[in-house]
Write a structure and sequence with these properties.
- The structure is a single chain.
- This protein has 692 residues and is an alpha+beta fold.
- 28% of the residues lie in helices and 24% in strands.
- It contains 17 helices and 39 strands.
- The strands form 11 sheets. It has a 9-stranded antiparallel β-sheet with strand order 1-9-10-11-12-20-17-16-15. Strands 2, 3, 4, 5, 6 and 14 form a 6-stranded antiparallel β-sheet that branches. The chain has a 5-stranded antiparallel β-sheet with strand order 8-7-13-19-18, with no helix packed on it.
- α6 runs antiparallel to α7 and α14 packs parallel to α17.
- The longest helix is centred in the middle third of the chain and has 20 residues.
Length: 692
């Protein structure tokens, strides 16, 4: 191999994104697995600094002033580059070249920005530089159940270049750090400026720190440490991030309870997508001492749903969680069993309580989580553990799995299929994708067969046969929703009417759950529909633009103008299962171009909706009507595409490992090293699984 096998921060850095005023840009986020922040459309500014239970909400602070004028008002674009450990920004205004490096320093509840200003006109000049500061800090120790983190009106007190904001429950301390010789100017409390004489061509260094804490003294102490460590913050962040990335692939490192296999390949696209998915999950690790659940993995960052883990999204990275951090996964599954998964979409970790309304995917998601956990870890004792549900039923986890496989009986309609409810129970922004949808009814077939496999494992052939017989009856009903010749499915409404739905969730879920039950002609038609109406050069549409509901919404995670980050890898696994790996292998270089803006976003635009970034599908911005966060934890679906789709790895309930992939069509010498199943390490080489 000519490439190293474990990435560093530099290996997964983004391309430079040019951010002009009001461009379609979602600014990058930062985290140290405790504090979370997002840079703004400015060369210095930071927003959404949150260290739960302390929060600045979504307020913006640190906007640059130059020559007494808001720097953004000059209209100069800002070049932005993300790495896990930092965000680098630069711009040139009025002959001043300004570069910044922003980090969440390891172990600190705050953010720091180094600012370098270079004189480029060749003339000795006075530099007037300042920051516009704001604070809305508050502490909300109870559950955070809203998409937006809490904030409050603050009282501001300025002393010199330091601004203190407080609402009485929490404190924020911000400071404009100046070089020797810079003279502080008088002005309002929230605009802190200084003047410095700069020789021709010289570079001068400033800084900005922002700390939050519940207690005023603690916030001040953190700010003092951030000021003292400003020059070393980026290097310290790089060292810590490189350590954690390396730990993901090292089974002997105790940072995680497990490890991901190492990918050996000369194919740049395959390697890039694998690393993209792995680091994208690591990004969401939360080691916040305020968590009642211990270590958790959030779902969205840095702007929305702080402290919340969605069952659906967590399940889309199921294999990564089972391989990388199985102890955390075990605890999370047990916690969700103890809550009513028929009434919420997830939980938040400040209290452990439920969040939101019912997502219809929950039983499928929970079954997938348990199956992957037990299969990869070999922890069959977990299946025997007695857990108590929200309604007071105490039973073995194995019995929960069987109950989930038949939970759809409670919502079965006269047709024999399950009715999965209204728009908010499903995709939220596709009004026609409601009630009896093919995807989750096909998933019920998979859940029944998965429960049958568990019954076999437990020596109950009668129950296994009953579950499989029910699955056979159900799969026939699912196939009745198919539209012959078109490649997509109807959604049946409560009045019995059939609405054509050209949505990728049917394609991806039907293909990954019941592909073998479909006639060859149907499989071919489905893939043809996918390639003609959904797949694009570097991404895909969630909904075909030919669908009658395409005008309903512009939220790009599930509509015509883009797709949620798990839909391309899940659709690719479906295409492979449906017998057409070639449409995936030829697609990978384009998909890899989209791994160029940091971890996968909650949605990326297709090429027609927004200009790509260096050939990669542009992340969708957060403002209305898009409402999309910069990153999403379902990044692990890309790892599953590589392991289970392209390498074709399958792990059964009993830990039996097989492989039947298509990687030889991409890189005949590619290998997975150190795939750990049930405490045994395997290599997948030349299509064979070998104990290593």
């Amino acid at each position: 191999m000519t490439h190293h096998l474990v990435p560093t921060c530099a290996d997964v850095a983004s391309d430079v994104v040019v951010d002009a005023f009001d461009d379609m840009v979602n600014p990058p986020g930062l985290t140290n697995h405790w504090a979370v922040a997002q840079v703004d459309h400015d060369v210095v500014a930071v927003r959404s600094l949150n260290v739960p239970p302390v929060s600045q909400g979504d307020s913006i602070s640190g906007q640059l002033y130059l020559g007494g004028r808001l720097a953004r008002s000059f209209g100069a674009p800002v070049s932005v580059r993300w790495r896990p450990d930092r965000v680098e920004r630069s711009t040139t205004i009025d002959g001043w070249e300004i570069t910044t490096v922003t980090v969440c320093p390891p172990g600190e509840p705050g953010v720091s920005v180094t600012i370098e200003v270079t004189e480029t006109t060749g003339t000795d000049r006075d530099l007037r530089l300042g920051l516009w500061l704001a604070s809305t800090v508050t502490k909300q120790a109870g559950p955070w159940r809203s998409a937006e983190p809490p904030q409050a009106t603050n009282t501001l007190t300025r002393t010199g270049a330091r601004l203190v904001g407080t609402d009485g429950s929490a404190t924020a301390v911000q400071e404009f750090v100046r070089p020797d010789g810079a003279r502080l100017l008088d002005g309002p409390a929230h605009v802190v400026e200084a003047v410095l004489e700069v020789p021709a061509g010289a570079t001068v260094a400033f800084g900005y720190v922002h700390a939050v804490a519940a207690e005023p003294a603690e916030a001040a102490q953190v700010a003092d440490r951030l000021v003292a460590g400003l020059a070393d913050a980026a290097r310290a962040s790089e060292v810590e991030w490189d350590r954690q990335i390396a730990a993901m692939f090292d089974p002997d490192d105790d940072e995680f309870g497990g490890a991901l296999p190492v990918l050996e390949t000369d194919d740049e696209a395959l390697r890039r997508l694998y690393w993209w998915g792995a680091v994208g999950v690591l990004w969401f690790k939360r080691d916040n001492p305020a968590s009642v659940l211990g270590r958790t993995y959030d779902t969205l960052m840095p702007r929305y749903w702080q402290t919340t883990t969605f069952i659906w999204d967590y399940s889309l990275s199921s294999q990564v969680h089972a391989l990388l951090d199985p102890g955390v996964m075990r605890r999370q599954i047990a916690h969700w069993v103890g809550l009513d998964i028929d009434k919420h979409f997830g939980t938040e970790w400040l209290t452990g309580g439920p969040v939101g309304y019912w997502y219809s995917v929950n039983h499928y998601a929970m079954t997938r989580l348990v199956r992957d956990y037990v299969a990869f870890t070999g922890d069959r004792a977990f299946l025997e553990e007695s857990l108590t549900t929200a309604d007071g039923v105490t039973q073995r986890l194995a019995d929960d799995v069987r109950a989930w496989s038949r939970a759809w009986h409670r919502i079965r309609s006269a047709s024999g299929l399950a009715d999965y409810g209204e728009i908010d129970n499903l995709l939220e922004c596709v009004s026609s994708y409601v009630h009896e949808v093919a995807s989750l009814n096909a998933a019920n077939v998979w859940c029944l067969r998965t429960a049958a496999g568990l019954a076999d494992l437990e020596g109950d052939p009668g129950e296994a046969a009953s579950l499989r017989a029910e699955a056979e009856e159900l799969v026939a009903l699912v196939k009745d929703l198919y539209i012959p010749g078109d490649g997509f499915f109807h959604a049946r409404q409560p009045d019995g009417s059939l609405v054509p739905t050209r949505h990728c969730y049917d394609f991806a879920t039907v293909g990954t759950t019941i592909a073998a039950d479909l006639p060859a002609g149907t499989r071919d038609e489905m893939v043809r529909f996918f390639t003609q109406e959904l797949r694009t050069p570097s991404w895909m549409r969630a909904l075909s633009p030919y669908d009658a509901d395409a005008g309903y919404s512009l939220r790009a995670d599930h509509q015509w103008n883009g797709a949620y980050p798990a839909w391309p890898p899940d659709a690719a696994r479906s295409a492979i299962a449906l017998g057409h790996p070639e449409v995936v292998l030829e697609w990978l270089p384009g998909l890899a171009r989209s791994a160029n803006q940091g971890p996968p976003g909650q949605a990326h635009f297709v090429e027609e909706a927004a200009e790509p970034v260096n050939g990669g599908a542009r992340k969708t911005p957060p403002q209305f009507p898009y409402l999309i966060d910069w990153s999403c934890s379902s990044a692990g679906a890309w790892v599953e595409l590589v392991i289970s789709g392209i390498f074709g790895v399958h792990v059964d309930w009993d830990g039996t490992v097989t492989a039947n992939g298509c990687v030889e069509g991409l890189d005949a010498g590619a290998a997975l090293r150190g795939l750990r199943v049930g405490g045994v390490s395997y290599d997948v080489v030349d299509g064979q699984v070998r104990r290593s």
